[in-house]
Amino acid sequence: MSKLALITGASSGIGKATAEAFADLGINLILCGRRIEKLDALKENLSKKVNVQILTFDVRDKEQVEKALNSLSEKDIDILVNNAGNAHGMGPIQDGSTDDWDAMIDGNVKGLLYVSRVIMPWMKARKQGHIVNISSIAGKSTYPNGNVYCASKAAVEAISEGMRLDLNPFGIKVTNVAPGAVETEFSLVRFKGDEEKADAIYKGFEPLKAEDIAEIIAFAVSRPAHVVMADITLFPVAQASATVINRGA
Ligand code: 8X3
């Protein structure tokens, strides 16, 4: 029987690429996000391969999350990909914008928790399921000016561990994925639309593409029932740590 996956932040980047990779595996999809036109376009494309539903909500809004997820007629979700999240601003912590901090803590941490809080009991009742949390190298290592973004991803790392421990009695798999430099809308959002700054992040080396991460996620969710890939760190070859990237001469 086909599996069913729910992906947050599915309208672009790693979320969208993961939806495409899952469709290639015959996994039915619930695509979640805020940008309905983008989700509609993706649905139109992927519906040729699998069943696709769309749910529009903002993960930061607890009521919206609960209302949208509880409206699902099919609650047998096999795979939850907690992908929604972003960086907002980058600079010294003493000058940080509290609005940016709210956006990152509310989206990357609380949003992931709100979505998971609804879906985990459904998985627990079925004694099966797989949760994939998209963290970051920033969650394993804090870099200069990354402060609150790094903190939000460090929280994701801790939540993945907490889920793995507490969901262990129910046979639910938890995979934490920590990418390094991936070229998506990520830097454009972080630098508030400043294309020059965003492009500079990926200059002088070949960054990962969203599809590279999606391929690994697709691999992780298609392992045999007794196997879980617990923690995956992914770098482009030019990257050696959160701060060391070989950009050539
Ligand atoms: C994205 C990777 O290195 O910009 O989470 O924090 S990094």
Summarize the structure.
The chain is α/β, with parallel strands linked by helices.
Tell me which ligands are bound: 2-hydroxyethylsulfonic acid
Q: Tell me, briefly, the overall form.
A: globular
Gyration radius from CA atoms, angstroms: 17 Å
Q: What percent of residues adopt helix (DSSP H or I)?
A: 40-55%
**Strand tally:** 9
The residue ranges in which pLDDT falls below 50 over 5 or more consecutive positions are none
Q: What strand line-up does the widest sheet have? A: 3-2-1-4-5-6-9
The count of helical stretches stands at: 8
In angstroms, what separates the terminal alpha carbons? 53 Å
Q: Structural class, from secondary structure content? A: alpha/beta
Major beta sheet summary = 7 strands, parallel
Mean pLDDT: 97
SSE run: EHEHEHEHEHEEHHEHE
Q: Strand share of the residues? A: 15-25%
Describe this structure in words.
Keywords: Oxidoreductase. InterPro entries: NAD(P)-bd_dom_sf, Sc_DH/Rdtase_CS, SDR_fam. Belongs to the short-chain dehydrogenases/reductases (SDR) family. Pfam families: adh_short. By secondary structure, the protein is an alpha/beta fold. It has eight helices and nine strands. The strands form two sheets. A seven-stranded parallel beta sheet has the order 3-2-1-4-5-6-9, with helices on both faces. Strands 7-8 form a two-stranded parallel ribbon. 2-hydroxyethylsulfonic acid (8X3) binds next to loops. The site of 2-hydroxyethylsulfonic acid has 7 residues, from loops.
